[in-house]
Amino acid sequence: MKGRLYNVRMRAARGGRHEAGGEHVSGAERIVSGEALKKTVDSLLERALKHSKGKADFISITLEEIKEEEIVYIPPLPITTVEVENYIEGRKGVIRCLEAIGLTSWQAKSILSMLENTSSIRGAILVDINSLERLEPDLSRGVRATGMDWSQDILPRLNLVLDEEGINNSHVREAVALASKVVRAPGMVAEVCWSDDPDYTAGYVASKKFGYVRFTHLKPAGDARGGRIFCFDTEQASLEECMSWLEKQITVINQVPSINGKFSIKELLRRIGYETNN
After folding, report:
1. What is the pLDDT of residues 160-182, one digit of tens each?
2. Strand extents, DSSP E, 67-147
3. What pTM does this model have?
4. Residues 124 and 245 placed together within one structural domain of the fold
C-alpha cells in the first residue's frame, strides 16, 4: 500500500460507554488509504448500527495516521477448516490441538475452561501457560490486539480464495488478520477464540505451528457469549515485549493465505502427526 495510510478503529456498545458498563456490541479496525476513508467509516458505522447483537447507542470511531516506517509486513497463517457436528465435539478438538502444540492435557482443559467461563471482558484473556495466571494489567478490560489489517492491494485475490473455500465473511477475514499478528508476539504459544455474535458458531485455534485452524462449531447457535484467550509462555519472553507487540506494533498482511482444506478432527490430528485414543 502506497501513500498516506490511516488506522480506523470502531467500537460500539449498548447501554452506555464500555467504560461505564455498557454491553459490547461490535468492534473492528481497518488500515486504509485516505481515498478509502469515507467508505470505510460508513461501513463501520453501518456495522455498529445493524449488528445481530442489537443497535448500539454508543459508537466511537477514531482515525490515526500511520507512517510507512511504523509498519511490519507479515504473512498470513495458512487456513485449515475442521468440520464438526456440534460445539461439544469442536471444543474437544480444541483441546487436542492445544495438546498437539505442546500443552499438557491439564493446561489445555484449564485454558478452555477459563475461556468458557469468562465472556464479559472487552479484550482478550492473556494467560501464562505455566501457572495459568491471568496477566492482563486490567482484568475487566483484558488485552487488546490492535493495529492489523490486510493490504488493500491483495483484497481482490483474498476474496477470490476465500470465496472458493466458502468462508469469505468478515469474521474469517478479521480473525485471520488478528491471529496472524497475535501468534507472532514474543512468547505467544496459541490463541483460542469464538465470536460473541449469536448467529456465528465457528471459532479457531491459531499457532505458528499449525496456522489458523477453524472449527465449524465452537458454541451453540443463539449464544451471545464469546471471547478469546492468548496463551503466553513467560519462560520464552517478557510480558512487556508481548504487550508491546500486541498493542503498539502496526502489522499489515501483504500475501494471500494458503488453504489446507477441510478435515474431520481425526484427519486433522493424523495430518499434523498427533494420534490419540481419547
Report:
1. 999 999 999 999 999 999 999 99
2. 71-74, 79-82, 125-128
3. 0.91
4. yes
